[in-house]
Structure formats: C-alpha cells, structure tokens
Amino acid sequence: MQQQFHVLTLEARVAGQTVFLSSHDLPEVERVCDRVGIIRDGRLITVEDIGSLKARAVRTLEIHFASPVPADAFTGLPGVRDVEVHGDVVRCTVAGAMDPVVKVAARFEVVDLSSHEPSLEDIFLTFYGPETEGTGATA
Question: What is the pLDDT at residue 121?
Fold first, then answer.
C-alpha cells in the first residue's frame, strides 16, 4: 500500500498537482515531499523547500590532515562552533555555508573529510528546542 501511495504522489507531482501530507514519519516525508510546513503550537512557523532547510541546518564536520594543524585555525569562522582539534584531526559543527571552512582547510594537506548532514527529523527537532520555545523563531 505504501508503494502505491508513493507512485500516486509521484504521478501527482509530474502532473503539476499538490498533495498535502500530514505525517510524523519524517523519513517518509523526506522521501516523498519537495517542501515542508512546520507547525508549532497550532501555528505554521515555516514552509520551506527541504533542500533549503538542509542547507541552513547544522552539520558535523570531521577533517583529517596529513599533519597537525594549529588549534585556532578554525576558531571564529562564520557559522563554525564546537571546534575540537586533536593533532591532525579537526571536528566542528557548521551552520550555513561550508565555504569559510573549506577555504581554511585548503591551506593544509587534507587527507580525508566527512560531513554528516542532518536528517529532516534532526532539522525538525531544532524548531522544537528550548531556544525557540515561545518565540515562533525558525531555527
């Protein structure tokens, strides 16, 4: 039945139709939908393209270098926080554009880089965190 639902929603998309889906099954929403609306306390607080939401979300980044890097090389970059430097490995979280981090990393020999993109569920939960409570803020 679920596969048939996916087929029908794809057919509707191809035909230029809109399908409203209310679900708490966020992995399914991510598979089926182009845009999401997030409701908090009975109010619609955002309607965004899933790609846009993910681009704004905080990602975890781990970079392995050929040799140790200065501990402060990534500190103070726009959108970068929770910087940890352990010899030749840098771990941090990045909100927004990755460009400043990539430009600094390019000054050193990069051996490996991994970015952990948040799921739609992780993003959704930021709209319900204590820092946005009562504000209607879009995290």
Answer: 78
The mean pLDDT value for 51-59 works out to 78
CA angle 121, 45, 21 (to 5 degrees): 55
Query: Two tokens at 136?
Result: 């209607």
Q: What is the domain range of residue 19?
A: 2-54
Q: What DSSP assignment string belongs to the chain?
A: -HHHHHHHHHHHHHTT-------S-HHHHHHH-SEEEEEETTEEEEEEEHHHHHHHSEEEEEEEESS---TTTTTT-TTEEEEEEETTEEEEEEES-SHHHHHHHTTS-EEEEEEEPPPHHHHHHHTTSGGGTTTT---
Tally the domains of the chain. Answer: 2
Q: What is the CATH number of the domain that holds 81?
A: 3.30.70
pLDDT in tens, 67-111: 999 989 999 999 898 999 999 999 998 987 889 999 999 999 999
Residue 107 lies in a domain: yes
What per-residue confidence (pLDDT) applies to 136?
A: 40
